[in-house]
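Subject: sequence -> structure tokens, single chain

Hey, anyone have a minute? Need the predicted structure for the following. Not urgent.
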Amino acid sequence: MKKIIYIITLNAIHCLSFSQQNATIKGVVTDANNTTIPYASIGILFKNIGTVSNEEGAFIFELTESNLNDTLSVSTIGFTSFKIRIQDFLELNEKVIVLEEEPVLLDEIVLTLPITIVKEALKKLKETTYRKPHQLNVLYRRFSNENNISRFLVEQYIKVLDTGPTSSTFNTIEIAQSRMSNDYRYVKKKQKFHAVEMIAKQNPLRKGISLKKFKWETIDYTSYDGEDVMIVEGKEKGKPQKWIRLYIGHKTRSIYKLEKSDLKAVYIYKKNKDGKLVLSYHNREYVFWETISPYMQKLLKLEKDEIKLSYRHEAVVLGIEYKSKNIRVNHNLSVGKDIGDYNIEYQSNFWNNINLPPDSKFYKTSSKQLELLYGIPLENQFKTPK
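Reply:
Had a minute. Here:
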């Protein structure tokens, strides 16, 4: 039995402000060693209001005075969920909450073969995930990098009609809002599809996992929302550098999180009010090399005639609509079109008022790189006609 003590620090002092009946809470999620906790789900119970902490554990949460009697919930892998009434939360200064991981029933868990655990979890996806049509409101970001320098950013607010991970693809996709930095790339490599489609198409839960292709092993134990969780890893036979890691509930066989070596991808799911899992967060990075001309090689002062390129993708689910009468997704993707080729007018009012997650260290660094290239603030680049 393992016991781990964590703390979640929600720094609301000096970070709460009321404006036109609205309240903004800024905070950071950390453990007992003051190490920040990324990708924690933070929101109001039983309402589709919430966010996800960024890579540094920071979050910004927007609510109204009508939410004062609602319950704020913080949950993530490895922690018992923390709940507090909004009014009580706001009346405190600095909040430090110590969470103790619940005991893991090792004697019961070790009796089940890892491959059997995975097989049962995949079979129960229809029970553990939300499969009715629902609208995901997604903030999608793609940084295009050359030699580890960010040279192009695309941010889009996208509406996705989904039926959960038992469906191989998203049903309908609409780019509702978009903004882009200036494009400073030397190698203007384009993808022949919209990158948001790959969230579904490259997800092993949707594609299907060939169980016999991997050697499965239970590598660790943790918890999520009061349930013991087994971390089961499958290494590809003959290619141990290729692996899939699943965070599976001991009792429910729910898959709360998935990681894979390909593209260093992460998928995180959270429970809705009915206890069904829905997508909450995803990131991945595609790294590749392109041959360049001798002139470009000399210009960039490279030793080889190749340049390292990468696309870093991040998708944060900002909200979910379950009521069919309120779902509005009008498909507007074009076949063979890169995410940066959509000519959608930049609407500053929308981006200034949407609940964006706090800028992560990576986002700040990448944005600074984009600003330093030609000395143009990122906000001005969004306004510049492309």
